[in-house]
Predict the 3D structure of the following.
Amino acid sequence: MNALTLPDVAAQVSRQALPLDWVGMCGIAIPVLIDGQRLSAIADAGVSLDDGNARGIHMSRLYLALEMLEETALSPTLLRRVLQQFLDSHEGLSQTASLSIHTDLLLKRPALISPLAGWKRYPVSIEAQLRNAVFHVELKIQIPYSSTCPCSAALARQLIQQQFVNDFANKRLEHADILAWLGSAKGIVATPHSQRSTATLSLRLKANVDELPLLSLINDAEAALGTAVQTAVKRADEQAFALANGQNLMFCEDAARRLSTALQRSSNIVALDVRVVHAESLHAHDAVAESRWQREAS
């Protein structure tokens, strides 16, 4: 008996001729290699269906092309190869291919003072597109940090000044008494409010970038903010963290400006969108600021 030819329904002519902007799969489980780490990721892969008479695409071909990501470090070059394979396997059907990868980058970060270290999670999305031979890559990175309100810091200082007046009015000032007062709960009657905050960086890379500059972008952003959240700490680290917050008082507007200015120095970025969210400990709502810029074409 001759083997029956399996039907290819996707190759049938569509009953309603209409091109589609994107057809593909979302939520594909894949491994990726970033900075020497094998990470669990979720991918969205698809192509345009420019031939309106074609009923559908060959989704299994997209899935199989993703195998290229398993053993090679993720880079713009690799992403372009994958997208080109998407198009080659859909010749005559598609002119645009796209791939989105969502994962958590794990970085081991040292404590501020002590020899301790711990892992921090940075959610990352990588979006690549190849359209009419034009290729580009966009990154989205979420970075947690601490923000201390400048207004509440000023109000707390005023209350401390008033308490000092109340406790030392008409008294002879002695160094030992003042030092003890500064170290007591009675003296420091108020503290400013601070909160865990998040910066989301959405950026487009230059077309000729060879590597994904995730680590350098995170380092530049945390250096600009000055108050990166910590992992394992001793008391000396906690004290250093309190000092960092005191020296980097920030409204959300300040944080957005710091990040936007710092990342403009990166020659790898052609466009940037910054969004910072301060999850207020004073209010039941968040404080948010955004900034964006795009380099003029040279």
User: Anything to note?
Assistant: The longest helix spans residues 150-168.
